[in-house]
Specification:
The protein has 172 residues and is an all-alpha fold. The protein has nine helices and no strands. The protein has helices at residues 10-18, 25-38, 43-52, 69-79, 83-91, 100-108, 118-123, 134-150, 155-170.
Length: 172
């Protein structure tokens, strides 16, 4: 997978990110302190992530998880230092896919993770299908971390810019 941001320089990342005005980001920010303090997500929290991603309620299968599975898996994902394990433990949960797993880590893990939505991937010259393996997700994560660091922006700023760039170039 060859990754490349479809827009630059630094000021453009910041300017594009500033045009990202999605009101439901605030919902994720409100959940952060409690989830980070206790170290796991509930089914209700996972559903909130799906809503933030605009995934239709009927497409999630969170209710298919046995009692305690979401809490246990997210506790492992948010506490382990093994990045591949973070991916696998989340992806093993019914209802969690290639957009939800990275979003859980983006909002609630301290490890500086990018979101991996179709728009964000497109803005990095990738496709959602490219993230079928944890190694691909790790490559994307390292690329986004390096890009954010190189351009002196936060991961959230980079993610907002990637999303907004897609919307402006490909339409909403």
């Amino acid at each position: 997978m060859e990754l490349e941001i479809k827009f630059l320089p630094d000021e453009e990342i910041v300017a594009v990110a500033a045009r990202y005005n999605i009101p439901w980001d605030e919902q994720m920010r409100k959940l952060q302190p409690d989830i980070r303090a206790r170290g796991w997500l509930s089914q209700q929290n996972m559903e909130a992530v799906a809503v933030w991603l605009r995934i239709s309620p009927g497409k999630q299968k969170f209710a298919d998880n046995p009692p305690g599975a979401i809490e246990g898996a997210t506790a492992i994902a948010l506490s382990t230092c093994d990045e591949s394990r973070k991916w696998h433990v989340l992806m093993d949960l019914p209802g969690v896919g290639k957009s939800i797993a990275p979003s859980v880590l983006h909002w609630f893990d301290d490890g500086n993770y990018p979101i991996a939505t179709r728009p964000a991937l497109w803005s990095c010259s990738a496709e959602a299908e490219d993230l079928h393996l944890s190694s691909s997700w790790l490559e994307y994560t390292k690329f986004c971390r390096a890009t954010a660091e190189e351009h002196n922006v936060t991961m959230r700023t980079l993610d907002r810019a990637l999303q907004r760039h897609y919307e402006e170039k490909r339409g909403k």
